[in-house]
Design goal:
Residues 24-57 are annotated as: Disordered. The chain is mainly α and 57 residues long. It is rod-shaped, with a radius of gyration of 25 Å. Helices cover 96% and strands 0% of the residues. The chain has one domain (17-57). The mean pLDDT is 77. It has one helix and no strands.
Length: 57
């Protein structure tokens, strides 16, 4: 019985560290996705503006 309590306590202490690491990984992945979206949009806008100038100019 005491062994189970100790095991549960040690797992409870270890768990917050895992959550912090997971949050950091998720934040990094979200930042990478945000940067990729920004890059993709800026390329499309610049190409679209160039093509429209070319069509009318």
């Amino acid at each position: 019985m005491l062994d189970q309590i100790i095991k549960g306590f040690s797992q409870a202490l270890h768990h917050p560290g895992l959550v912090v690491n997971e949050k950091a990984d998720i934040r990094t992945a979200n930042e990478n996705k945000r940067q990729k979206r920004t890059r993709s949009t800026s390329r499309l806008l610049s190409k679209g503006a160039y093509q429209s100038k070319r069509a009318y100019g």
